[in-house]
UniProtKB/TrEMBL annotation:
<dbReference type="Pfam" id="PF14351">
    <property type="entry name" value="DUF4401"/>
</dbReference>
<feature type="transmembrane region" description="Helical">
    <location>
        <begin position="276"/>
        <end position="298"/>
    </location>
</feature>
<feature type="transmembrane region" description="Helical">
    <location>
        <begin position="196"/>
        <end position="216"/>
    </location>
</feature>
<feature type="transmembrane region" description="Helical">
    <location>
        <begin position="433"/>
        <end position="450"/>
    </location>
</feature>
<protein>
    <submittedName>
        <fullName>GDYXXLXY domain-containing protein</fullName>
    </submittedName>
</protein>
<feature type="transmembrane region" description="Helical">
    <location>
        <begin position="248"/>
        <end position="270"/>
    </location>
</feature>
<keyword id="KW-0812">Transmembrane</keyword>
<feature type="transmembrane region" description="Helical">
    <location>
        <begin position="522"/>
        <end position="540"/>
    </location>
</feature>
<feature type="domain" description="DUF4401">
    <location>
        <begin position="347"/>
        <end position="665"/>
    </location>
</feature>
<feature type="transmembrane region" description="Helical">
    <location>
        <begin position="685"/>
        <end position="706"/>
    </location>
</feature>
<feature type="transmembrane region" description="Helical">
    <location>
        <begin position="222"/>
        <end position="241"/>
    </location>
</feature>
<feature type="transmembrane region" description="Helical">
    <location>
        <begin position="552"/>
        <end position="573"/>
    </location>
</feature>
<dbReference type="InterPro" id="IPR025833">
    <property type="entry name" value="GDYXXLXY"/>
</dbReference>
<feature type="transmembrane region" description="Helical">
    <location>
        <begin position="83"/>
        <end position="100"/>
    </location>
</feature>
<dbReference type="Pfam" id="PF14345">
    <property type="entry name" value="GDYXXLXY"/>
</dbReference>
<feature type="transmembrane region" description="Helical">
    <location>
        <begin position="351"/>
        <end position="371"/>
    </location>
</feature>
<dbReference type="InterPro" id="IPR025513">
    <property type="entry name" value="DUF4401"/>
</dbReference>
């Protein structure tokens, strides 16, 4: 129930406008940052290099000046402006790497980016900048250890040593966050929990890598050290956040990580069906004990914080209180319905623990059933599934102990999965429409027959997801290349829209505390399934919006307009409600802005979830919506059906529109009380000067780099090397060719018979590649030197390189080109480098078979 204090209508209108203006400004900043990255990555051929550099530098300078002015006035808009300037810094560094072809060492870009935004982080102490800084350090170290290839983005390390380094980095970030906790403005403890989650995740990754390598027979070299490196930080984090700094969320995540380590260490030794069953039961038992202990930690935290007498009476420190319409202050508490269990109102991290345990347990039990029983027909799978599901529901409802209730939930989900397998086989044999009622009946029975949030969420998600899948055309199900891509996209779009509307309606209905436990899991499942469908639209078969039939366009248009509609409903239903003209005006304005993310349906789903999460004060919904929005923008970036320039224009116009909306909402003549806005309290010059100094540092460092690279290109010695290109895309820098050189491969072969030379390179970490031109002017391998610069003959030249991951790297590994010109540069056979006197090499241009410039 939402409770607000009575007050004058004019005051409520002002608070509504302030909250809405803040939200519109933040969204405008995020879209503007994405638009800038897209525009830089487009490498627009109509603009010269100097024009692109000047444009991005000018945008960065304007953002810094805006942040300085707002900081001087004490305006909270200084933080979003500085955050946008930090994003523009990354775009500027990427543009420099794009122009001067220095993108081979991607780790240097992220490390330099992190160093340059550090002054802004020091003076602002904002959560966004702190999280961005930590992410940049992680990316820099990851790419440095695993190399700069595109595959480094998708794998979590070739050996457990990579995981150990990243584990150590995040542990240091966590320690630093705790030491600086008094000065960081982080009321939600996002910095602490993000750093702790990253540390725990890499601890589990180290254990998994060690288990796999130990399974391959390398016990002494991998398994035992990996076990030590994984368990020590987990135990330390658990001890620290149960005794030193009480935080039940971090302690619960540590419990989940510890169970994950145990599971990985044991799963590689399972060789029989009995072993699979035993491991499943062990993980279930550990999970039950961990969930009970997590609830105890939560109750202790509630009592220590003085939030209430029992966990059920209040969501305590990890459930955001319901906010007043403007989001200015807590307005009440969430009351638990009479007669419900404490576990039904557990915070998000207890639910995450349960879901994290249920998934592997159900998977292992499914493997055990598949091995032990011969379920080769739809009837067999349905019969076994119904029996398990009914038994699990009965056990969950009749048992008084939580452990048996959780066991019943596991059996219920396992039975539902077997029913789903039977439904799939029926659909394969006789079509989906005969099997769909069975799926709906099984899902409804599982949902209605249990009181556990995790079981209801799994039942609703499985039913909705498989139902959407089965109702698609058979060509979509069994052959991606058969049928029309536009028909598939249209089908996905309408299913996405229906689920999104369903999720929003059910979420609003579940705002009442008496209905929350029953209906909120269905809302979560509908919104999550809608998010999955939205990502599929762009990932599987991206189709331009104009190429879709009118039905598909209508579905995507409704999804894009829905965030504004949900926001209008929130404003109309809240007490006190917003003025009617404000409801209609803001809803219509967001509807127009929706055209900016029309091609990115995942962003529409994210905004709906963000509004609903803000409305209900649900922090997990808000955090996951922000994450989905970032993923949606990344997927939209790689959509080949729309050019990067067009995407940047759409997002940029939406950002300008939302910024204008924010200004309109905050305009003095729009204040309901008719009074002029009092001047904001001015702050000391420390913050503005710090922001300005950070901007000068960024622009100065970039300009110095530009002059350095120009000097190398002007006075460097030309060197032509044979190469072999391929063609991926960089997230920050656009389309590029990943280059490999014939001379580098020749050196690899030569080093096979030279173990002393390889050891010397490994010890020094750097060396010199000696080259000599042949009769055609192509430079060939002459020798290799590890250590100081060698003495060269008149016809020789040396390139300085670093020795990383068992290979030499002198840069010049990418060639960036404007979007859509890949065929032109696919004819490249040689690369022309410019080598400075100190051995630094820059890639100047690509040459064709006749060594003519492309």
């Amino acid at each position: 129930m939402q409770v607000t204090e009575a007050g004058p209508p004019a005051e409520h209108a002002v608070r509504w406008r302030q909250g809405l203006a803040h939200g519109a400004g933040l969204l405008a900043a995020a879209l503007a940052g994405a638009a800038l990255v897209f525009w830089v990555a487009a490498n627009w051929p109509q603009m010269t290099q100097d024009a692109r550099l000047t444009g991005v530098q000018g945008v960065l300078a304007l953002l810094v000046v805006l942040a300085v002015g707002l900081a001087r006035r004490g305006h909270r808009g200084a933080e979003p402006a500085a955050g946008l300037a930090a994003l523009a810094t990354g775009a500027l560094l990427a543009l420099v790497g794009q122009i001067y072809q220095t993108g081979a060492d991607a780790w240097q870009l992220f490390l330099t980016w992190a160093v340059l935004i550090l002054p802004w982080l020091v003076v602002l102490r904002s959560v966004f900048l702190a999280l961005l800084w930590g992410a940049l350090l992680n990316l820099a170290l990851w790419l440095f250890l695993d190399g700069s290839t595109a595959a480094a983005w998708w794998r979590w390390g070739e050996s457990w040593s990579t995981g150990i380094w990243l584990l150590g980095l995040n542990a240091l970030l966590l320690i630093g966050a705790e030491c600086l906790r008094p000065v960081l403005r982080d009321p939600w403890r996002l910095i602490r929990r993000t750093a702790a989650a990253a540390t725990l995740a890499w601890a589990v990754a180290v254990a998994a890598q060690g288990a796999v390598m130990g399974f391959a027979g390398m016990w002494a070299q991998s398994l035992l050290p990996a076990l030590a490196f994984s368990l020590v930080p987990i135990l330390a984090i658990y001890a620290a956040y149960t005794r030193w700094r009480r935080d039940p969320a971090v302690a619960t995540l540590a419990l989940l990580a510890g169970i994950g380590v145990v599971g990985f260490l044991l799963v590689v030794h399972v060789e029989s069906a009995e072993g699979v069953l035993g491991l499943a039961l062990l993980i279930l038992a550990l999970g039950l004990g961990a969930a009970r202990h997590a609830l105890l930690l939560w109750a202790q935290a509630v009592k220590a914080d003085g939030a209430g007498a029992s966990p059920a009476a209040s969501a305590a420190s990890d459930r955001a209180p319901v906010l007043d319409p403007a989001g200015a202050s807590p307005a009440g508490r969430l009351e638990a319905p009479t007669g419900t269990r404490d576990e039904d109102h557990a915070p998000w991290y207890v639910t995450a623990l349960r879901m994290g345990i249920l998934a592997p347990v159900v998977l292992l039990l499914g493997v055990w059933v598949a091995i032990s029983f011969d379920l080769d027909s739809a009837a067999d799978a349905l019969s076994a599934g119904v029996l398990l599901m009914l038994g699990g529901l009965a056990l969950g409802r009749m048992a008084s102990r939580a452990s048996w209730q959780e066991t019943g939930g596991v059996l219920t989900i396992l039975g539902l999965l077997l029913c789903a397998a039977g439904v799939w086989m029926l659909a394969d044999e006789g079509g989906p429409w005969g099997a769909l009622p069975i799926l709906l009946a099984a899902g409804a029975a599982a949902y209605a027959g249990t009181r556990q949030f995790a079981v209801r969420l799994a039942a609703a998600g499985l039913t909705l997801g498989l139902g959407c899948w089965l109702t698609m055309p058979r060509g979509f199900l069994y052959g991606w290349g058969d049928g029309s891509a536009s028909d598939w996209a249209t089908g996905l779009a309408w299913r996405l829209t229906i689920l999104l509307v369903l999720g929003a309606i059910v979420w609003i209905v579940s705002q009442d505390a008496a209905r929350r436990a029953r209906w909120r899991p269905l809302a979560w499942a509908a919104l999550t399934t809608a998010a999955g469908l939205a990502l599929q639209i762009d990932v599987l078969e991206p189709v331009p919006f104009r190429s879709l039939p009118w039905t598909g366009q209508g579905g995507l248009l409704i999804a894009a307009l829905l965030p504004g509609a949900v926001l209008g409903v929130w404003m109309a239903l809240s007490r006190p409600r917003a003025p009617a003209n404000l409801c209609l005006g803001v809803s219509a304005a967001y509807g127009v802005a929706g055209l900016g993310w029309l091609g990115a349906p995942a962003c529409a789903v994210a905004l709906v979830g963000l509004v609903l999460g803000r409305w209900s004060g649900n922090r997990p919904a808000q955090a996951l919506s922000v994450l989905l929005g970032l993923v949606g923008l990344a997927v939209y970036y790689f959509d080949p059906s729309v050019t990067l320039v067009a995407k940047a224009a759409r997002l940029g116009l939406a950002a300008v529109w939302l910024a204008a909306l924010a200004l309109w909402l905050r305009a003095p003549w729009r204040r309901a009380d008719g009074t002029a806005r009092s001047p904001a309290a001015r702050r000391a010059w420390g913050l503005p000067v710090g922001l300005l100094a950070g901007g000068v540092l960024v622009l100065g460092v970039v300009q110095a780099r530009v002059h350095h690279y120009e000097a190398i290109l002007d006075r460097g010695h030309p060197v032509i090397l044979a190469l072999a290109p391929v063609d991926p895309r960089s997230l920050m820098q656009g389309d590029y060719m990943d280059l490999d050189y014939a001379v580098r491969r020749l050196v690899e072969q030569w080093l096979i018979g030279q173990p002393d030379a390889r050891d010397a390179l490994q010890a020094n970490g750097r060396g010199w590649l000696l080259l000599r031109p042949d009769a055609q002017g192509v430079w060939q391998f002459e020798g290799l030197v590890a250590g100081p610069a060698p003495t060269l003959e008149a016809s020789e030249l040396a390139i300085k390189f670093r020795w990383r991951n068992g290979e030499m790297d002198w840069g010049a590994r990418h060639w960036f080109f404007p979007e859509g010109q890949g065929e032109r540069y696919a004819r490249a056979r040689y690369g022309e480098l410019r080598v400075a006197e100190d051995g630094t090499a820059l890639l100047a241009r690509l040459l064709d078979e006749a060594r003519a410039p492309l």
